[in-house]
Amino acid sequence: MPKRSRTLKLKAAKRDNFTCQKCGFQDKTMVKIEAHHIIPLYLGGKDELDNLITLCFDCHHYAPDKPGEFKDYMGDEMEGRLTTLIKAWEKVRNEQPELFKEGSFSKVEKQQQSSSKMDKTELTQLRKENEELKKELERLNSMRKNQMGGMVKKASKGNLVTRAPWGYEIKNKMLVPGEHSYQVEEIFQDFLTKNISLTKLSKKYGFSVNGLKKILTNFTYISKIKFNNQIFDGNHPPLISSTLFNHVQNKLEKLGIKPNK
């Protein structure tokens, strides 16, 4: 990321209290938050603080490019709450994996019962809190499975489950070539045939380096849908050939350029 962009990301993060402005996730290390251009650079947006908003990786991944759609996306409180709940579930699972083992709650009770310092009132309260936590974790797990299952099912039918990639747009719930579709092949050809760095190529087309890497590794351009580490046939038209796409992946690998996670 260029020095200027890193500085702007830091300023935006400080302004937004290192917090995702959609789901409320906070990360003062800035490892899991990103600066999103409200109006994308390729749509005429400026690389300025007023055009940046802080989002976590998950919310940034699903954020649409078009300003009107992005405004609606940010106003979807239910989706934001679901993301928050999923993150809370993951946090508890990572920090206290023992709670997810079978019989873990009963083991906690037995340990506390053996303590002479634990009276009946405290034991009752502990049991109640354990049961409430268990129910909440089960509820979050169920919500996550339902959401993921629905998205996998949608992807398996060839439908996009994320925002439309650059070069496409969504019309009547269908993914179709957009205003900049002709430039997608140009970008792939430039990278493949010219001795040019990702930094210079990204500046040529008005992207960040990470943004360019997302384009160069996006299976959507060959009429595929990649989701949850699975690849499905898409219902949309390709913008480049599979041969060109595969050659670009080979070059990326030879150069040691890893795709964004």
Report what the structure shows.
52% of the residues lie in helices and 10% in strands. Strand 3 and strand 4 form a beta hairpin. The strands form three sheets. The chain has a two-stranded antiparallel sheet. Strands 3-4 form a two-stranded antiparallel sheet. It starts with a helix and ends in a 7-residue tail after the last helix. The chain contains ten helices and six strands; from the N terminus they run αββαααααββαααββα. The chain is globular, with a radius of gyration of 23 Å. It has three domains: 75 residues, DNA Binding (I), subunit A (Orthogonal Bundle); 61 residues, no CATH class; 100 residues, Alpha-Beta Complex (Hect, E3 ligase catalytic domain fold), CATH 3.90.1750.20. 17% of the residues are buried. With 261 residues, the protein is mainly alpha-helical.
Nutshell version of this structure?
The chain has 10 helices and 6 strands, in the order αββαααααββαααββα.
- Assign the CATH class of the largest domain: Alpha Beta
Backbone CA Rg: 23 Å
Relevant CATH superfamily of the largest domain: Putative Large Serine Recombinase, Chain B, Domain 2
Please count the beta strands (DSSP E, at least 2 residues each). Answer: 6
Q: How large a portion of the residues is in β-strands, by DSSP E?
A: 5-15%
CATH architecture of the largest domain: Alpha-Beta Complex
Mean of pLDDT: 79
* Approximate shape: globular
**Can you tell me the CATH topology of the largest domain?**
Hect, E3 ligase catalytic domain fold
Structural class based on helices, strands and sheet pairing? mainly alpha
Number of helices: 10
N→C terminal distance = 16 Å
